[in-house]
Amino acid sequence: MYIxxxxxxxxxxxxxxxxxxxxxxxxxxxxxxxxxLLKVLKLDAASSKGVANPAxxxxxxxxxxxxxxxxxxxxxxKHEKLTTSDQNGLIIVWTLxxxxxxxxxxxxxxxxxxxxxxxxxEGQKICIVYEDGAVIVGSVDGNRIFGIELKGxxxxxxxxxxxxxxxxxxxxxGEVHVYDNQGNFTMKVHxxxxxxxxxxxxxxxxxxxxxxxxxxxxxxxxxxxAIVYQTGHIQIxxxxxxxxPVIVDSRVNAVHCSWNHNGTLLAVVGSAILPEDNKxxxxxxxxxxxxxxxxxxxxPGRSITACQWEGTSLRLAFAVDSFVYFAILRxxxxxxxxxxxxxxxxxxxxxxxxxxxxxxxxxxxNKVVPALYGIAAYKEYCVLATKDTTxxxxxxxxxxxxxxxxxxxxxxxxxxxxxxNSTHVFAxxxxxxxxxxxxxPKSHSTLGIAGNKxxxxxxxxxxxxxxxxxxxxxxxxKSYQATGDPICCMAASDKVLVIGRESGALQRYSxxxxxxxxxxxxxxxxxxxxxxxxxxxxxxxxxTGIMTLVDPEGGGGDTGRFERxxxxxxxxxxxxxxxxxxxxxxxxxxxRGNEPEEPINCSGYVCTFQDxxxxxxxxxxxxxxxxxxxxEEHIIDLEVKSLRDTRQLLEKVGIAxxxxxxxxxxxxxxxxxLAEAAVKKLDLKTAEAAFVRCSDYPGIQLIKxxxxxxxxxxKRAQVAAYFGDFNEAEKLYLDIDRRDLAIALRERxxxxxxxxxxxxxxxxxTDSQLQTAWNSIGDYFADRGNWENAKEYYEKARNTERLxxxxxxxxxxxxxxxxxxxxPDKHSLLKEIGEIFVSVGMCSQxxxxxxxxxxxxxxxxxCVSLNQWDQAVALAETYNMLPQIASLLDKYARSLxxxxxxxxxxxxxxxxxxxxxxxxxxxxxxxxxxxxxxKPVRIKRLYxxxxxxxxxxxxxxxxxxxxKSGLLLENxxxxxxxxxxxxxxxxxxxxxxxxxxxxxxxxxxxxHIDATITSIHLKSYEAxxxxxxxxxxxxxxxxNSKAFGTASKAFMKLESMESFNEVKREQYANLAMxxxxxxxxxxxxxxxxxxxxxxxxxxxxxxxxxxCETRYPVCIVTGRPLLNLTSAWTCKSCKHSAGYSDIGVxxxxxxxxxxxxx
Length: 1158
What we know:
Blueprint: E1 2-10, E2 17-22, E3 28-33, E4 38-43, E5 57-62, E6 70-76, E7 81-86, E8 90-97, E9 100-108, E10 114-119, E11 125-130, E12 134-139, E13 144-149, E14 155-160, E15 166-171, E16 176-180, E17 185-188, E18 205-210, E19 225-229, E20 233-237, E21 246-249, E22 253-259, E23 265-273, E24 280-288, E25 293-299, E26 304-309, E27 315-320, E28 323-330, E29 335-338, E30 341-347, E31 352-358, E32 364-369, E33 372-378, E34 381-388, E35 393-399, E36 405-411, E37 417-420, E38 424-428, E39 432-437, H1 444-450, H2 452-455, E40 458-461, H3 470-475, E41 487-492, E42 496-501, E43 505-510, E44 515-521, E45 526-531, E46 538-542, E47 547-550, E48 558-564, E49 567-572, E50 579-584, E51 587-592, E52 595-596, E53 600-601, E54 605-610, E55 613-617, H4 619-624, H5 631-634, E56 635-639, H6 641-653, H7 655-664, H8 668-680, H9 684-693, H10 697-707, H11 712-722, H12 726-735, H13 739-749, H14 752-760, H15 767-783, H16 787-797, H17 800-810, H18 813-822, H19 828-839, H20 843-852, H21 856-865, H22 869-878, H23 882-898, H24 902-911, ...
Antiparallel strand pairs: 1-28, 2-3, 3-4, 4-5, 6-7, 7-8, 8-9, 10-11, 11-12, 12-13, 14-15, 15-16, 16-17, 18-19, 19-20, 20-21, 22-23, 23-24, 24-25, 26-27, 27-28, 29-30, 30-31, 31-32, 33-34, 34-35, 35-36, 37-38, 38-39, 39-40, 41-42, 42-43, 43-44, 45-46, 46-47, 47-48, 49-50, 50-51, 51-52, 51-53, ...
């Protein structure tokens, strides 16, 4: 970090200033002092891009209202209000209206002096404390919320906790008390910052500030509550109950303190005697949240009274006497740049956010680490030094440009300082430094040969003198003893490691064997080190901002006594060991040897220096807008003076003068620039010499090609194409009527759209060129998933293979069928197209395609895989492959049967036209269900399906003899021994359960006679329904219909059943006795009908006349015999009949559920 004064504003009449407040949201600066002084200032932001210019005063308004000294000022940034108080106790709230500040509210207690005012983080409540112990809490609209009187407790300040639940009061005695937001005492803060020999009582608190976390925290539960005493003793706590706070003795007579915008730096102002002075001076001391001294800056003037940070912490304001001093701060951001990727960090809510920003593609990757010590980058990788808060270990994480970790190492060495080269990570605490060989994907093969021994980290104490013998180092004692001269900075290259110590000593180690080769000293503490490209020079920035150069090879002395002041950043050129770019305040200097070039106004951080171009990153703007990264706004490329001068010489003077200048200031970039200018002017001799000097082999090849060309216009076109100006090259070719060369140029570039346009301009392109162009355009659209346009161009190119691919992605299977029809037999693409048809289940198209390809076996396999057995059988029969299909079918069916997948077996047999096999399995399923006696509807459906399969078999059998496949299947079934009885009585099972359910329905609906007639039919189905169930139903229905004769016969049957035991027979006999002792066993006459043929009496349940033996079918709707066959309806599916009057209201057959339309 570096800070320097940039501006001073004087207050008129030399009125002393006592307090400052800087609004972080709007940038207003409130200044309060003697004689009622109250001013509001506004500074304009810097106008130049990338330059932190001293701001210009844009507004200076004096606010009247106070008569005495203004002592307390605070901003309400949420509501843009300013609250001020003077020594007389007068409080005024100011508000902004039309660009002018006006009084909004006034309050005067007239009893005591206001010692502190603080708004909560939401800007809704303000707490005001008086010297006499009075406390008032009010709302933003001016209403009083509550007030308390702390008798005998003089107060000196107040702060809200970040969550607004606590109020912290500091007392004149130096104590700190905590109250809740209702004014109830909670606790007394334990003050530990004073040594045991020093009595705390009476030491006043000059500053108490609690960072509210609005801009994130560097790590979870980090110190943020600072208490500063007048003696310079500081206590920084994580919360009010922190028993292990950070303790600091700043050795400053402090007067004020202030956190920066993200709670990482505490600025403490006061007076102290500096080492180089004999008298007391005004100073500002910067302390990290962990209590580490960062920097001390001397402030001119007699008495300093206050300091305030700007909203982004890039500027500070100091109240000194009657002046306001402004200082510009250049923060030490944790960042790195490698492989065109910027990696930077900023505090988040749960830790530190690390962003990887690809400056070329603007691709962003984010990581969150619990705590971050630093970032170092080199070539293709960066290393993050982190802290694992769970196991208290420190981690070194090597990442690539997309934030992916490629290697990691956990260690007990706190990585306060880190460096990186192409093979090793270097980490140092104050006492030790660690060297670790990290592994990358490129190094896996070579490192695997050396084994893990080379990978093992090496730890050294900074006071040791290693000789480079790695085996000895591993056995040394690694105790963590402290040193009297701690490490303060570190730098590394592929050849050397340099460590700086607080005494000014520098230690240089050779790499990779790590041997201490040199020690030399500086006159001040080094803060930053940098090594040039060939490790021959070292640049140092000390803690006062003075930069010097050291020549390690020359004994470590200063190089020509080179010295620059106010330096805060530096970077050596990666391709020239004599060039270094440094940043002094708001200017960049390029040092060549020991001589500086003309400065360039810039405040960016230098990330690369190569080819005489310096790339700077505007990290200040990036940190302020992390979500709006833009290379054009946040990256600036600057050219060194020699590059700028060379350009001017080439543009305005000539090649000869530029050549002389470059010979005096040689650099590959300048020679390349000369070569480009010379070749554009067709000065081939100069161009060739320049290309040789910059080792540009492609440029030399260009010169050779141009030497063989006689036409200057063609030369110019080739030069334009070489430098990427392809439109100009094409224009030059067309101007001399060489359209063929223009087409060849566009073909090499892959600009096939332009190739087509050029071909259409006239004749000259061949059919082969045109076809290649169409194909390439099709490839262009195909690569982007635009299959419709790709298909169009492939059709023009007659590229059947790629056209087939487009049709597949577009699911245009009709076009695929057309492609099949255009291809000759046994074409190689037919197989791929057939496989496409198979993948989407288009069996017929796949079979046709495979047949055309001569792949009969594959066609059959496709039918089998798609479960299209009918097509498989037909195809197999045509090509004499039926036995193979039959065996494959049976094998598959057995596999399904073993897994109890009977319905799939039935479907399989049905598709293969083996209806009887399917019906047999269906009958077996029905019989199993009937054994369970559960859900007659399900059993009936199974029997119906089985019967329908038999009907399908019968229909197939009755086809004409020309249906050869059917005949072969019939022979196959007959040879399989199918039960013929199953064919003849296919509907018996369905009829049985149909009449069973019909009888029960009629019985429940009260049609007892119909139920009796229907139930009597069940006597013919004892093979399907248990006899007991049948005769019980007959007895029940006939008793309800008064047909006791029929009931008697049913009971007789029940009593004579051999399967019953004696108890059950006796029960039925007793029941019969009870019934027939009351009723005579006779049937009513209504239950008999008359045969229309012979007029003989015909029982309603009988379908055969006893007189003439005429058979009458049973109505499947009512269960009665159909005496008039001329008025009977017959189902086309199951061939069962019903009366027209009964079936007329029905849409489906009651038995098989086929359509019943008459």
